[in-house]
Structures are given as structure tokens and as C-alpha cells.
Amino acid sequence: GVYDISLRNSDGENFVFENALRIFAPPPPVKNAITNEEITTKIVPAIVKINTPSGTGSGFIIENDGYILTAAHVVEGVNSVDVKLSDGRLYEGTIKGLDKINDIALLKVPELGLPSIPLGDSDSSALPLGSKIFVLGHPQGLESAVLSIGILGSRQADTNFEYLQTDAKTQPGSSGGPWINEKGEAVAIHVSAIGPSIGRYAIDLGLNFGVPIDFVKTKVIGLKSGLGFVDIPKGLPSPDMTAGSTREIPKLVVTMVIYNPGSGCDQFGLDGTLIPICWQYKLYKDRYNWIVTDK
Q1: pLDDT at 147
Q2: What are phi and psi of 98, to 5 degrees?
Q3: Which end of the chain has less Cβ packing within 10 Å, N or C?
Q4: Catalytic residues, which ones?
Q5: Among 219, 227, 231, 213, residue whose Cα is nearest residue 60
């Protein structure tokens, strides 16, 4: 609600500050909220561990005939991956579609009757700030899925959608896992986090970002068609030099792109003169020969 605050000074005079304090109450309790037992029996079985030559990541089954959502940076650069289910079954997963720009990928394993997670709604009316968020995945390549609980803390505008942000804890390897609402539905794909680290171990990744599921749902049909890339959104730059050209790029820019694969170059806090080269590296890395400088 919105409240007026009345203060009295040492002379006994009253000062009223209208609309001085706005208090955001937490969202009302969710009816038929998912229980701990249901998380164990319905959600965890649909979480998968993804192994690639370059590392591990997470994903989640969205259809019982083997379709799996994950983050594009988890599977980028390969045609197939090893997919391990919670019950230990191991499959070769085929990359059906890859949307590098928005960090979304769709995999397929050759199996029927798999457990799956329904896709929910991520708009602000269905998922207001303060909503409880369950984040699941395989951080640091752990064999069993790990659950972390937080709240929806903000929505951060980007080129094509608003990233969701939560304070639930994650680690490298969590990417591609689902964010689950209290109804047991996926509301985002985990793609990136910001926080200090020592070596490969994150200390406190309290700023975690996910691609909202409402946006993801608009891409699934295209990803199912087997496209290697989904269309580059309007407003993003096209290649600005001939393929094979040699280009210099500051190490800082390369680091920001690598460690924040789900974010746009305009979110990194870079000097404005570095944003164009950042986009060229992020979108067309394989097109050019890059020389990394210490500038």
C-alpha cells in the first residue's frame, strides 16, 4: 500500500510526507502449491544432465517423447551430446535447433514415455515480483539434481524480452536448467549469473538470470523444425567486415561475452565505443580471425 508519514520536530511542528512509503506485499499464497514430495517425484525426474566435450550443463524434458530445453551456450559447437536422466539412463541427444542470440536450444533423445515439466506463464500478472522460484540443475557437474529456492527479484529489459532475475543460488553447470513456479511449471531457462568466484567455484551468485518461458514458447516450433539458427532479431547488427578478416578485440570484451552468454552487449556496462565490436564477436565469432589485446 501507499502511506503518508507524519514527523514531528523538536519544536513540536508536524511535517506530513504524502505517499512517502510504498510497501510491496508478497504475492498471495498459491492454491494447490507444489509439495516437496511432488518436486521429488514429478520435477526432479525431468531434469537432465548434459555432457559435452567442453563441460557439463543442465536441461529439462518438456515433452514425453524426448524433447529437452536447455541453454544454447551449453551445447554450442557440437551436433550431439550425452544426456543423463535422473534414473541413470544415458542417451545420445541430437541438437534439433539452436538460437544463439537468445540462448535457447532444443534437444531430442530417442525415447517415449519420459517424465516432463509443463510450461507455465512468465508474464507479470502470473508471476509477480516476490513469487517463489525453484531453480534445479546439475551445478559443477554433480550427478544428482540440486534444488535452490529464491524469489523473483526483478525483470531486466533486453532487446527481445525481459530477463527474469532471482536470488536462488547457482553454480557453473546450472545453465539450461528450469526455473519452476509454485504450481510446478517451468517459467524460465537459467542462462547466466553474476557474482564473485575463486577459480571455477562461484562464491555467491545471487544475481541469476533466466529467459522467460513465454518467449521460449514462441521459439519452440522453429527449433523443432531442425533449424541450426533461429532468425536474428531485428535491431541487432549485421556483419560489418568481409568473412575471414582479422580483427582486434579487448580481453575485457571477450571475458564479458564468455561469462555472460545470455546477456546482450548493451548490458555489460562497456564504453559505448566497444559495444559494436562486442556484438560482432558475440554474433559472428566464427566469421573473423580475432586477436585479443590487453587494452
Answers
A1: 93
A2: -135, 120
A3: N
A4: 73, 103, 175
A5: 213
